[in-house]
Amino acid sequence: MPNPKGNPQNFEPAQSKGEKPLTDQLSFRVTREMKEEVKAKDDPPEFCRRAIQKALDEEKENT
Q1: What pLDDT was estimated at residue 33?
Q2: Cβ atoms of 48 and 38 closer than 8 Å
Q3: pLDDT tens by residue, 30-52
Q4: What is the DSSP string of 1-63?
Q5: CA-to-CA distance for 16 and 48, rounded, in angstroms?
Q6: CB under 8 Å to 48, separation ≥6 — which residues?
Q7: How open is the CA angle 6-24-61, to the nearest 5 degrees?
């Protein structure tokens, strides 16, 4: 019988491929087309993190 409280490792914060732990969440609205394109990627969360980081880095360079 499965554990009704879930798997204990599911309660740990997600591990990033980088050096900093992923502890916070961000939510925002997108068009249906954008959502479908992102979901089609191999690793949608990592794709979004890289895209956001790239935009933040570019903005820093321009200011």
Answers
A1: 98
A2: yes
A3: 999 999 999 999 999 999 999 99
A4: ---TT--GGGGSPPPPSSSS-----------HHHHHHHHTSSSHHHHHHHHHHHHHHHHHHH-
A5: 13
A6: 38
A7: 150
The structural domains of the chain, with segments of one domain joined by +, span 29-63
State the pTM of this model: 0.69
On whether the CB atoms of residues 38 and 47 are closer than 8 A, the answer is yes
User: ∠ at Cα 34 (30, 38), nearest 5°?
Assistant: 115
pLDDT (0 to 100) of residue 61: 93
Tokens of 13: 């914060």
Is residue 16 within 8 Å of 22, Cβ to Cβ?
yes
- Output 42-45 pairs: Cβ under 8 A, ≥24 positions apart: 45/14
**Per-residue pLDDT at 26:** 95
